Each structure stands twice: as C-alpha cells, then as structure tokens.
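User: Teach me something about this protein's shape.
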Amino acid sequence: MLKSLAPLLFSILGFMVMRLPGALIGYFIGRMFQGTRVYTSRGAFNGPFQSVYQPDNDFQLNLLALASIIIKADGAVEEVELRTVRNSFKQMYGEERAQQIFRQYKTDFDQKNTSLEEICRRIAMRSPMETREQIFLFLQRVAKADGTISDSEFQKLSQIARLFNLGQQNVQDTYKQSSAAAYSILGVSKDATDAEVKNAYRKLVKRYHPDKVITKDEALKIGAEEKFKEIQEAYEIIQKERNNN
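Assistant: First, the predicted structure itself:
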C-alpha cells in the first residue's frame, strides 16, 4: 500500500520543501522507490532510474517545450519568464543537467515545430493526474512571472488544461489571475484609458472598503473584505500589464 502511494507522498513532501520543483522531484523519487518500469518512446521498458534520467529526455524536453509555448504566447518574450523557467529547471535537475536540457532543446527540439496537442498527448500518456496538475501550476507561474496572465497566455493554458484532462476549476483559477478578469472586476473595457481605470478603481474601493460596510453580519463583513481584496488585485494586474507600477 505504502509503495503504491510513494509518488504522491514524495510529491507532497517535495512541495512542502521546494514548492513545485520539489513536487516534481518528489514524484520521480517516489517512482524510483516503487521500482516500477516505464515504457519509453523507443518501445523499450526501462527501470525506474533510467525512466527518470534517460528517457530520451522526453519529459524534460516536452516540459521545456510547453514553457516555451507559454512564454511566446503573447508575442513578447519576457526576461522574467525566461528566468523563471531557467531557475526552475536548475532546481529540479541541477545546474549541469539543466544546461544539457537547454542545449538539446535548442538544437534538436526547438526546430521541429511540434504542436501543442502532440506535446500534451505525450505527457498525458505517461504522467498521472497529479503530475499533470503540478506541470499546469508550473506553467501558470511562468505565465504570471511578469505580473499578469495575458489573454493569449490564458487561452494557451486553457487549451493545455483541456488536453491534460484537468478539471474546470483549474481553468477558472487561471482566469481569476488573468488580465481579462481584472478588467471585468473593475467594470471597464481593455480599451479604457488609464484615467478611466483609476476612476473605476476608486469608485469600487470607496464602495467596498471594509470601513464603509457597516453591518453586524460577520458573513457580510468577510464578503466585503474579499471583494475589496479582489478589486485591489485586479487593479494591480492592470497596472503591471500597462507598466504603470
């Protein structure tokens, strides 16, 4: 029983120590502990150690490919997003191995123009739901590294969630962090001027500020606090997107 739960247990422990990179490392350690055998793309079964470190680099390259798709989604490659990916790979695989993956991706993988559907199919075919969820969270973090999830990044993340067979909640959580949701919360269009955005923000802050909500109902107080926080976060997302911060 313990052996069957090893990947999940090690993932949880890893997440507690190193967040997402730790969860992925923990999963692989759990698979090694299980001693299971994994089928590779070349049609051969490898032992657990080989499946993690020598799978034709399939997992690492496909993960890097997904990150690259997210980074390029809005047509502007942000240095902070690249740095997030580099640092995550170094944490997961170590400096030397990460550099090997980057070099191989650039020479062997980047020029193939493999579709998003094919990459997700490969990962979904070999990874349990827990791993796919952790990958999705990693991609969310990459998209939000510059402060906001753009509309195009949100569309790509939604597509990945669907191809990974993840629940609708993952998509909803992503939408809440997107710029589209931020404009909706403030009740303005994306074409609104900075002055119009600020005016809408001030009106909502005045309306929903906890000090303005006079009630003995604890639920209403909590609701007002949550709404106020949501308004502040939405305004910050828009400011970052417009580089006004």
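Now, about its shape. DSSP finds twelve helices and two strands in the chain. Residues 32-56 have pLDDT under 50 and may be disordered. If you'd like, I can walk through any region in more detail.
User: That's plenty for now, thanks!
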